[in-house]
Amino acid sequence: MPGTWRRPERMADHVSEIASASGEDPFTEGRRRFVSQGPERCRDIRACFDRAFALQRLGSVAKSADPIDVYFSDPAYARISPNVLFDEQWYVDTYADVRDAVASGEVYSGFVHFIDYGLREGRSPNATLDIELVPGDGEPDDGPLSFNVELYTKSYKIVRKFLECFPLIDAVKFYRIYGRRLGHTVWDLGGFAKKAFGDQLAYEFDHEYYCSTYLGEKVSRSAALQHYTQFGMREGNSPNPSFDELWYRTFYTDINRAVSSGKIQSGFHHYLMSGREEGRRQLHDLKYALETRMAGVTEPRLVQRAHEIDQRLKSLPHRLVPRGASRIWFCLPMLNPDMSFGGYKAVFELIKAAARAGHALGIFITEDATDDLDYFTYRERDRELVSVIKEAVYVNRARGKPIPLSPDDVFVVYSVWDAYVVQPLLKVTNAKRFILLAQEFEPIFYECGSTRALTQDAYRFDHVPLYNSRFLQTYFETHGLGPFVSKKSTDGRAAADKEVREGADYFVFEHVPTRLTVEPRHEGTGSRTLAFYARPEMHAARNLFELGYLALRKLCNEGVFDHRWRFVGLGSLQDDHVLPLGGEHHIEMVQKMPQEDYARFMNSIDIGLSLMLAPHPSVVPFEFAATGAVVVTNTYENRSALELEAICRNIVSCAPTLAGVEAALRTAVKRAEDFQTRERQRLTDTDRSWKETFSSDILARILASVTNAAPKESVRRREHPVLVSQRSRSA
To answer: Which residues form the WsaF N-terminal domain (predicted)?
Structure first.
């Protein structure tokens, strides 16, 4: 069809052509073209440019750039419609003057024309609205007009949607430009409303109650009603025992303001006209009052949690097979392919290592009630892992079937919660302690309460922890947790601590970071990128999203980041969307990138921001540091500024406070411009792999620590391996 445009199947090819032709970031020109529109026009375009919608239309090409920069980088991208109510192709085809202006370069696109001129001229943004409009007579009427705006907006969905998509006008302006031509009705607050209120008041008014409560004597109904309307409403009197005027006013602060300003006569006036329909209450109700201000506060959720804790602490049914082959059992809360990163990545690598070493495996699931492996085998990309899991014995607590155990079985626990689950199982096997994949001090996941107390108490069970960093192992040792707990004599006096040996009573490994080919950043690059490990979900509160977000907002509003800076949030579980930062800036929240796009993006980072209020430092700061970016991360009691900066001198450490993060970001912005120093101090990873981390020799020593096999020579306590390997490289 002539005039119809479709997005190319491979927009990335077009980006490559632009990049090769210009010799720079393909979207730098788009940023310049956008900024050249001028401050006021840029503000209006940003207000109406739906980034999430544009990202969907642009596809993967916008994953590594600001969608506005992409839109303005080349006329081919201007053909998309960056707003759900705007149809670019229809608009340009319909209005010949716009088509000519776009063709001559007078305006960049139909969308820009509509924002700048067409909206206020009363032009239609799409064919559907155009069909509904009655042709206007000359210019839109800008004369005075007064009506019930709230009721008008509630009555027409198109008004609400239009104002959401084009917040440059208000409801009154919309009515003047479009509403009249759409045949919309507006309601005056005058005579009709007064009559409706008077009719309802006459019906709701309790004559006897009002006389006894406020007048002290019985008068005629008309006299009592007259007193109420002339004096009582103003004084806060209630018209009947079912309505508390003063409560209604004081609880609903918007009503109190409306009464004080004279917009409505009383709280009861509002209740009859709209409050009842809105679901507002007439009298104080404790649960309603609390829930309105603090949603969920009255819910007895701990009763349900008590049941959940009871179920979680129960062991799985089991049966002993005296001559059965020995097996390594991995106790996992869930087996979810959508969560196969972070800590689960390490346990999956350990599972594969055990299979490669020839061990028979078993998997039992304690939380997720999904009763089969179909979804896991479909979604999981690691086909070696899928093959190993399918070969293992699989047991889910939800099935209620007993676990077949042999005397020489060993248990690897992913979450310390499940230490309770394996205790009865250890009683029937030769191994009397379990292996714990310790990747965090888990009580920090919970608020102060029973769950936290039980989680912390679980470390008292005899186990061999595999700590995933020297930082974390130091924390446990300092706090006397797990194998480092002080032994007490029977009379309560402290006894001499037993010797705790690394390589026998605990092990330390380092998480293997994502491997990327690093390409040095060059000073000639016009744009700057800040990557923020931004996890706004409650389960990830330890990543301090709020501190990072608020610090960025403040610094953007202060002008610390100029127009060159782009902000990308990584780690969110929601669909791609944007969050405003202030000024011209926003954060592009990206759920996931294809590996090729991710590698390209990581090579564009100038500053990495990754926070963690927990003993485990997270892997992300060091992955950022490996790209040559300046990295902002916080200290904790088990990792000081000196220790972090000894790993990589591109790390700018800070206290986990708003002021601390702000100060570190200010420093990072300045240091980001020194490209040579950044490259020289870039964190150079050792050539570690997961196969080396969980080699057959290391795995044998781990298993020997719980099976009472012939003891191996214990590993001598070493310095932090990353500190040792990187100190010279980042000096």
So the answer is: 327-469
Write out the two tokens for 101.
């202006």
* 675-698: b (≥16 Cβ within 10 Å) or e: beebeebbbebeebebeebbeeeb
0.85 exceeded by the pTM? no
Can you count the helices (H) and strands (E) in the chain? 39, 16
Residue 347 to residue 356: CA distance in whole angstroms: 14
Distance CA 588, CA 581 (A): 10
Local structure of residue 402 (DSSP, 8 states) = P
Q: Which of 279, 180, 283 is nearest to 239 (CA)?
A: 283
How many other C-beta atoms can be found within 10 angstroms of the C-beta atom of residue 480?
12
Contact status, residue 514 vs residue 585, Cβ threshold 8 Å: no
Burial of 664 (0-12, 13-18, 19+ CB in 10 A): buried
Give the residue carrying structure tokens 């974390």. 472
Question: Which pLDDT score is estimated for 1?
Answer: 32
Q: What would the pLDDT profile of 530-566 be if each residue is shown by its tens digit? A: 999 999 999 899 999 999 999 999 999 999 999 999 9
Tell which residue, 413, 462, 470, 422, has the closest CA to residue 442: 413
Give the whole-angstrom CA distance, residue 154 versus residue 274. Answer: 12
State the amino acid at position 369 in one-letter form: A
Confidence band (pLDDT; 50, 70, 90) for 78? confident
- Which residue, among 161, 181, 182, 159, has the nearest Cα to 171 in the 3D structure? 159
CA distance 533 to 543: 8
Count CB atoms within 10 A of the CB of residue 368.
15
d(CA 692, CA 328): 20
Angle between helices 450-457 and 301-313 (to 10 degrees): 20
565: tokens are 């800076």
Nearest to 127 by CA among 164, 92, 163: 92
Residues 664, 551 contacting (CB under 8 angstroms): no
| Calpha distance 188→146 (Å, rounded) | 7
* Residue 514 DSSP symbol: P
The amino acid occupying position 521 is: R
